[in-house]
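Onboarding guide, step 5: your first structure request.
Type a short instruction followed by the sequence, for example:

Predict the 3D structure of this protein.
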Amino acid sequence: MKLFNEATTFKLTESPTEELLDFDGLKVLVVDNFYENPDIIREGILGTPATYFTPDRPTYPGRHIDIRYDLSSLSTCYKSLISKYFKLNVDVDECLSKHSFLVNVLQSEHSDPNPHIDNTKGYASSIYFNILEECSGGLDFYDFDNNKLGTVDMKYNRMVLYQQFVKHVPYMPEGSFTGDLHRINQQLFIG
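The system replies with structure tokens like these:
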């Protein structure tokens, strides 16, 4: 039996690289080298069956993994980043104390090319777990008229943070995630 240690698994690196992108007034934070042990998380993801059963997210086009782990160790980091780069108006501790370990598992053929918002308030965060040779595309951001403003490229152990009301869509070049290759990213909704 495999045992899970959240303190080790979800430990954050002490030397992340932070970059605030500005897409025509839209702020998107990119943090590289986010987790100290991303290989442990990736191994856990690859060893967990993903499902199309998504009753809490009925419009999600792909599969996901949704497991209850203790993510409270992420609170201090997210509070700091949100207050530093955005307006802190959510209870991060409360959100992450109830948040599950949610992983989007998507292939090119099942992706929805239409930009969407996640919610009208709060923040969303994606953390990529595809290794370098698997990475393709990224996350596209749009204005309210569906004009593309910019792309954040997919990169292993990269965290992207943005407000949930911002229109976005996974950018996956045609045929990039097929067969046994899936786009895998941890997703957090804070707020």
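Each response can be followed by summary notes, for example: The mean pLDDT is 94.
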